[in-house]
Design goal:
single chain, mainly alpha, elongated
């Protein structure tokens, strides 16, 4: 069989569930990144001047990693709903962005201290990490089953 005649697996019901929930979840991250980077006053009104300065002071590489993490996962969710194999690669890119974002936030800056993060911030970061890994595994499995083309 050629690529043009290879049968595509039927779309399982859970793809739509995972796709829509992940799209909504990842839209929140993309919104946060966009509003933070465009310095949207209404969105950032609850932050102190020190916190705003911290965000504005992110090095370029960490902003790029943050953008890759958030927008990569959002686009991965879109690709998942469109049943595109590209979803897996986008989730991989997103995961790489997440790792570098966390490297900066937790290891190379005072971000956690300035943002008054504690256990809650660590738990939320862990949830993001777990969801990112689950989306990677899920998209890889759907690709392997022929659901994503």
């Amino acid at each position: 069989m050629t690529a043009a005649t290879t049968p595509v697996a039927r779309t399982p019901w859970h793809l739509w569930t995972v796709g829509v929930i992940s799209l909504l979840w990842n839209a929140m991250g993309a919104l946060d990144f966009t509003m933070s980077q465009t310095h949207n006053a209404a969105y950032l009104k609850g932050l102190t001047p020190e916190q705003l300065a911290c965000i504005a002071g992110f090095p370029v590489w960490s902003v790029l990693a943050w953008g890759l993490g958030t927008w990569g996962s959002f686009l991965g969710s879109v690709a998942l709903l469109l049943r595109r194999g590209l979803a897996f690669r986008l989730f991989v890119a997103s995961f790489v962005g997440l790792v570098f974002t966390n490297l900066y936030s937790y290891g190379l800056s005072d971000y956690v201290k300035v943002m008054h993060g504690g256990t809650g911030m660590l738990v939320f970061s862990a949830v993001i990490f777990v969801i990112s890994v689950l989306l990677l595994v899920y998209s890889r499995a759907m690709r392997a089953r022929g659901v994503l083309r």
